[in-house]
Amino acid sequence: MGPVQVFAPGQQGYQIPNKPQDWFSYPITFTSVAQTTPQTTNIAIDAGSDFFLTAITYDAYLAASTTALTAATIIVPGVTILLTDSGSNRQLMNNPVPLSEIGGTGPWPHRMIHPRLFLRNSNIQVAIVRYDAATGGWDTLRVNFEGFRIYA
Questions:
Q1: More confident residue, 1 or 73
Q2: Torsion angle of the four alpha carbons 23, 30, 100, 49, in this order, in degrees rounded to the nearest 10
Q3: I need a labelling partner for 79 at 20 to 30 A (CA). Which of 27, 29, 119, 126 fits?
């Protein structure tokens, strides 16, 4: 396989190192997401490996008292998302965007055209804001950052 183009902050012509690597994901969960109330969490990238993001998936769950979800009842949560890379101190978009525009469901993940490098010991700050006014539609949001790690 030839070189793979990678988005690596501050580096040109970056190639994925020929070092041990393995598939990995960083999942996060938001609960009690109230309309127009921002929620933020950080994903701490492991100290022993860089992380290459290749896909984003999401899943929203109904309140515990409702019926179970099926493939035909996938919820598209009305939230915006803003990602910030602490390793480069850069936001990955200039304004928050609807999650459904940069993330997909498990069977239909949003694949990155080129992997995005997050350096070891950095953080991915994830900020969401719910714009969906419907009540009882969903109450838990899980976002999964899929990719692979390259070990030092």
A1: 73
A2: -20
A3: 119
Of the candidates 43, 75, 59, which has an alpha carbon nearest to the alpha carbon of residue 149? 43
pTM: predicted TM-score of the whole model, two decimal places: 0.84
The tokens for 128 are: 């969401």
Tell me whether residue 1 is in a domain.
no
Residue type, 44: A
Residue ranges making up the domain that contains 89: 22-151
In one-letter notation, the amino acid at residue 67 is T
Among 92, 32, 40, 37, smallest CA distance to 63 is for 32
pLDDT tens by residue, 39-62:
999 999 999 999 999 999 998 887
CA 51, 56, 57, 63 dihedral sign is: positive
Q: The domain that contains 69 carries what CATH number?
A: 2.60.120
Joined tokens for residue 113: 């055209």
